[in-house]
Amino acid sequence: MTIRLLCLFFASALVGTNLYAQENCSKDVLSAIEKYLTTKKHLGVGNVVSTACKPWPHDNSTILSATAFQASPENEVLLSIAMLDRRSNSVIAENTRTVSQDAAVHFGEGSLKLDTAPYHLAKGVTAFGVRFTSDAPGPSCADGAWSEELNLYVRQGTGLRFVLQGLAMERQQALEGCFGPAASKLIFERASLSLSISKTSTNGLADLVVTAKISEDGDLIPGTSKSSVEHYTLRFDGHEYREPRPSPWWLTIFRP
């Protein structure tokens, strides 16, 4: 989720759906996560910056959580993704790392969403998603924009590991002008992405088909907007899903 793209897009709210319906984590859950992080020697856990919790629909005894804690120094957050036992609120699997914040990456209330679409990647392997949207102000005039970074995790024992890191589900590129308060005119392409599970697989996990619905927007002459649909396949390389090379402009995967 560490991003070095000099662009930003002010994300619109997700359409209400059970896939994204969730709430802030309870005090008991947050306390359990903080205690767990302390035992793992993650020192300097500060206030909660962003949090989301949701029952795991594929196992009703499990709660999923995504929480960003203020870390030290101030330009960093400690990002904890966890599975917890629903009865005891104890952590049963987790992935915790430090994320640096900058002009394009900043965690705020509502930055984290849990995605529990049925990502059945293999027999006995179901991933869940964490979506990140930055609330950073961004540059005054950028030639591109993104929002909704999707990260997919699978459980391995007491750990959670990435199989997909930072796929931007909304991408824009300026055709004329730029994004930001300094722009006087803007014509751009917008690509809204969705994922589907292919019947084919690579290195043990199902291929992911990315569908991009592309349209033109901005200061256009009425009736001149164009639209199209494009598809690309992401294949598992044994460690994670990677974009093909060369990639279309709308297929951007951010990695630390």
Kindly list the characteristics that best describe this protein.
single chain, 256 residues, mainly beta, eight-stranded antiparallel sheet, four-stranded antiparallel sheet, 1 helix, 12 strands, 51% strand, globular
Task: Write a compact overview of the structure shown.
This protein is mainly beta and 256 residues long. The chain is built from one helix and twelve strands. The longest helix is centred in the first third of the chain and has 13 residues, at 27-39.
Give the number of helices: 1
Number of strands: 12
Overall geometry = globular
Mean pLDDT: 85
Strand order of the largest sheet: 5-6-7-8-9-10-11-12
Secondary structure category: mainly beta
End-to-end C-alpha gap? 6 Å
Gyration radius (Cα, Å) is 19 Å
Note the quaternary state here. Answer: single chain
Percent of residues in β-strands: over 45%
The major sheet is characterized as: 8 strands, antiparallel
User: Helical content, roughly?
Assistant: under 10%
- Unreliable stretches (pLDDT < 50, length at least 5) are 1-17
SSE order in H/E notation? HEEEEEEEEEEEE
